């Protein structure tokens, strides 16, 4: 998974036109990616696959809005919010992916508490 995160970090670095590879910049990009994933999950997007083109687009728009890319932060935020809404309404994205046979979490832990 770390390789995927690194790849996604590099995609965001390219999308933001950032050539610096400093640890601080990398950390900020990774924090932005994590915040976007949390925001998507908070709005009901359960299928957050870093290889999915629409998820990558959502993360890109979010990062561009957060970094104020090209002075168009508001435009990118609106585009992100629209895409997030569409993803959250799509069965393909608002349904949790099937639990794999190697998953040891025991399925839905919320059912045990309720």
Describe this structure in words.
By secondary structure, the chain is an all-alpha fold. It has one domain. Helix content is 65%, strand content 0%. It contains six helices and no strands. It has helices at 2-15, 23-42, 53-67, 73-89, 91-94, 110-113. The N and C termini lie far apart (32 Å). Mean pLDDT is 87; it is low at 108-114.
Provide the descriptors you would attach to this structure in a database record:
mainly alpha, 0% strand, 114 residues, disordered C terminus, single chain
Proportion of residues in β-strands: under 5%
Q: Give me the strand/helix succession.
A: HHHHHH
Biggest sheet layout = none
Could you say how many structural domains there are in total? 1
Give a brief rundown of this model.
This protein is mainly alpha-helical. It has helices at residues 2-15, 23-42, 53-67, 73-89, 91-94, 110-113. The protein starts with a helix and ends with a helix.
